[in-house]
Amino acid sequence: MLDHLGEDAASKSLTSAFESALADGIATPDLKGSATTAEFASEVLSRLK
C-alpha cells in the first residue's frame, strides 16, 4: 500500500521491520508463533525507531 502511495522509503522501512521481527521468531499464531497482534505490532514499531 505504501508503494502504491509513492512512499517507497516508508515501505522499505516497514517491510524491513516486520521481516526482522519474524526472523527473530516473533510471530502471531497464524505464522506458528505465540505473540499477540499487539505484541507483534509493538515489536515492529520498536524496530522502526
Automatic annotation (TrEMBL):
Protein name, per record: Isocitrate dehydrogenase
Organism: Arthrobacter parietis
